């Protein structure tokens, strides 16, 4: 989930599609050189050591990480963290793991953590695919949030979209039976692609698949983001997809 005012990357998109000699895996994100404010830098310095986890290619002991046993929800791409902080504050009995590659967003969410005294959030500034693959134990998550991922709207870049069959096949192994996957996007063709990919995964059950198009109403507990509000004012649609993992 990228902030709408994030500075544009200077690398030509087509240059990123040129395979490197090392056959670097395709990424669903591009690192952008965002500027960090004073408050974000201070939060990173003072709160980072406690709430920002280092990436390691080993499984996390989630009970030790949070100091308790509770349901855990993963959020992939939290942008500037406004919605994440609101949800975490409203659900103190649930632990949240936020993954974001952009430093300003990490600093902004750490600032929210300090201002709201949130104890149920831990952050990772790393590629979500690698975090999922190497750090999250199987069936350890009660839920996953993927809200407004980069749509990669140009057709030649659609292959970079996060919601792909191979990714979903692996992600569902980290969700406990009965747990949920909640995606949201304001790009209709991406919503249709999400519906196709998630619908083809046998381990998932669509909660809104009762004769309709398969899209769910926005849950009351998902806050409207600034990005989403801006789009709605411009007449853009928003599509929520909520699936549960079969037992």
TrEMBL record:
Region: Disordered; residue ranges are: 1-26
Gene3D superfamilies, A to Z: Vaccinia Virus protein VP39
Note the InterPro entries from the entry: SAM-dependent_MTases_sf, tRNA_(Gua-N-7)_MeTrfase_Trmb, tRNA_methyltr_TrmB_bact
Ligand binding (substrate): 154, 186, 225-228
Q: Which UniProt keywords apply?
A: Methyltransferase, S-adenosyl-L-methionine, Transferase, tRNA processing
**Pfam families, per database record:** Methyltransf_4
So where does S-adenosyl-L-methionine get bound? 75, 100, 127, 150
> What SUPFAM superfamilies does this protein's entry cite?
S-adenosyl-L-methionine-dependent methyltransferases
Give the record's pathway: tRNA modification; N(7)-methylguanine-tRNA biosynthesis
Q: Which reaction does it catalyse?
A: guanosine(46) in tRNA + S-adenosyl-L-methionine = N(7)-methylguanosine(46) in tRNA + S-adenosyl-L-homocysteine
- Family statement drawn from the similarity comment of this UniProt entry: Belongs to the class I-like SAM-binding methyltransferase superfamily. TrmB family.
- Name the record gives this protein: tRNA (guanine-N(7)-)-methyltransferase
């Amino acid at each position: 989930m990228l902030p709408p005012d994030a500075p544009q990357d200077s690398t030509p998109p087509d240059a990123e599609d040129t395979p490197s000699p090392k056959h670097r895996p395709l990424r669903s994100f591009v690192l952008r050189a965002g500027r960090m404010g004073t408050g974000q830098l201070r939060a990173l310095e003072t709160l980072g050591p406690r709430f920002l986890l280092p990436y390691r290619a080993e499984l996390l002991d989630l009970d030790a990480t949070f100091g308790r046993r509770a349901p855990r929800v993963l959020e992939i791409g939290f942008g500037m963290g406004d919605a994440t902080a609101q949800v975490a504050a409203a659900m103190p009995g649930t632990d949240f793991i936020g993954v974001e590659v952009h430093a300003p967003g990490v600093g902004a969410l750490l600032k929210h953590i300090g201002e709201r005294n949130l104890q149920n959030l831990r952050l990772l500034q790393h590629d979500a695919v690698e975090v999922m693959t190497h750090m999250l134990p199987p069936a350890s998550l009660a839920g996953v949030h993927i809200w407004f991922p980069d749509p990669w709207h140009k057709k030649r870049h659609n292959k970079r979209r996060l919601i792909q069959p191979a990714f979903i096949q692996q992600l569902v192994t980290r969700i406990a039976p009965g747990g949920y996957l909640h995606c949201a996007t304001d790009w209709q063709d991406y919503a249709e692609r999400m519906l196709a990919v998630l619908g083809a995964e046998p381990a998932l059950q669509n909660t809104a698949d009762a004769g309709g198009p398969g899209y769910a109403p926005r849950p009351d507990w998902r806050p409207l983001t600034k990005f989403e509000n801006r789009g709605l004012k411009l007449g853009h649609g928003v599509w929520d997809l909520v699936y549960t993992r079969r037992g």
